[in-house]
Design goal:
transport; Rossmann fold; single chain; about 35% helix; alpha/beta; ABC_transporter-like_ATP-bd; 6 helices; 8 strands; ATP-binding; Heme exporter protein A; binds adenosine-5'-triphosphate; five-stranded parallel beta sheet; ATP hydrolysis activity
Length: about 190
């Protein structure tokens, strides 16, 4: 078991966004979070990542979790090479950053301030393939990606599940059907 949610609830002010949700996730599983705007997908990912505290219930996590926000956040003044080297050093990891940039079709020496939104999304995926978390928490990973980028995303998720678990919040039903074993539907707020 990599992740277990027990009767998880989250309230902002008077509004309950997540209500009494239980879920358990094993290594190798991919789960899609579906639901309209404002239904609580990002909130649930942030609860899973430990970035938000539940109002009620519990989140039990094992291993290393990484949350990919939408849009991803980077240091604008670093180049892709510098950012990946920083990330690897920060996580005490080693990896073929040059190979990862090549695979995702990205320039090594351009400052991230000059990256398009799709290039930033590609870089965020390249970064995850290098850091290899146990639990991948992806918020709308398809956003801003072109067709080739979406194919790379599917390939990345399929590879990730070999040693990890993936939870993705998405508005793309076709992506969810292509990569996920099951879906959790969150209702409208
Ligand atoms: N920090 C916060 N304070 C107050 N309300 C919040 C906060 N974060 C989220 N909410 C509210 O929680 C609800 C769920 O938001 P969330 O971002 O989780 O939805 P979502 O399903 O990810 O939406 P989208 O599909 O638009 O990305 C919304 O009504 C939102 O306004």
């Amino acid at each position: 078991m990599l992740l277990r949610l027990e009767a998880l609830s989250k309230r902002f002010g008077r509004d309950w966004v997540i209500r009494d949700l239980s879920l358990s996730l094993d290594r190798g599983e991919v789960v899609a979070l579906l639901g309209p705007n404002g239904s609580g997908k990002t909130t649930l990912l942030r609860l899973m990542a430990g970035l938000l505290k539940p109002t009620r219930g519990r989140v039990e996590r094992q291993g290393h979790a990484l949350f990919l926000p939408n849009p991803p956040a980077f240091h604008r003044h670093l180049t892709a090479r510098e950012h990946l080297l920083f990330d690897l050093a920060f996580h005490g990891a080693a990896g073929d950053w040059e190979g990862a940039l090549k695979r995702f079709g990205l320039p090594a020496e351009l400052p991230l301030a000059a990256f398009s939104s799709g290039m930033k999304k590609r870089l965020a995926l390249a970064r995850l393939t290098l850091l290899r978390p146990d639990l991948w928490l992806l918020d709308e990973p398809e956003t801003a990606l072109d067709q080739e980028g979406r194919a790379l995303l599917q390939e990345t998720i399929r590879e990730a599940r070999k040693g990890a678990s993936v939870v993705l919040a998405t508005h793309d039903r076709a992506l969810a059907e292509a990569v996920a074993d099951r879906a959790v539907w969150l209702g409208a707020a």
